[in-house]
Amino acid sequence: MAEERLPHRHQGQEGAEHLRRHLDQIENFQTVAAVFKQLSDSSRLRIFWLLCHYEACVVNISALVDMTSPAVSHHLRQLRSSGLIVSRREGKEVYYRAADTEQSRLLHRVIEETMAISCPE
Questions:
Q1: Rounded to an integer, what distance in angstroms lies between the CA atom of residue 88 and that of residue 97?
Q2: DSSP codes of every residue in the chain
Q3: pLDDT in tens, the chain (121 residues)
Q4: Among residues 49, 48, 45, 72, which one has the least CA distance to residue 60?
Q5: Any idea what the Cα angle at residue 41 is, between residues 58 and 121, rounded to 5°?
């Protein structure tokens, strides 16, 4: 949106056209919103945080987060479909961990820094 098309002209808004090009890429914002939606559930957030630190099977994850295995499996499917976690099979066991991606590392840092700022010790 060119500056002359903005309803109000304010000093320091010379970059509005550049911002408009990014704002028009709605699919990018939808992708980011989908990732944040995965972490909007506190149970999924806890599981993701755990898997950033520890590779585990469903049974151990269930015990650590005090949830049933079917509930944990439901959350794991969603996290896996979003690419935040990965799995590997060893015999009959399936082990889960955070994906080794910049996106997962960034979200892990955001979670930890938000907890450090927001949660008193």
A1: 9
A2: --GGGSSS--TT-TTHHHHHHHHT-HHHHHHHHHHHHHTTSHHHHHHHHHHHH--EEHHHHHHHHT--HHHHHHHHHHHHHTTSEEEEEETTEEEEEE-SSHHHHHHHHHHHHHHHHHS--
A3: 344 466 666 666 666 777 777 788 888 888 888 888 888 999 999 999 999 999 999 999 999 999 999 999 999 999 999 999 999 999 999 999 999 999 999 999 999 998 888 777 6
A4: 72
A5: 90
Amino acid identity, residue 112? E
Amino acid making up residue 97: R
- List the structure tokens of 22: 């990014």
**Residue 79 corresponds to which amino acid?**
L
Instruction: Output the six-digit token pair for 35.
Output: 């990732």
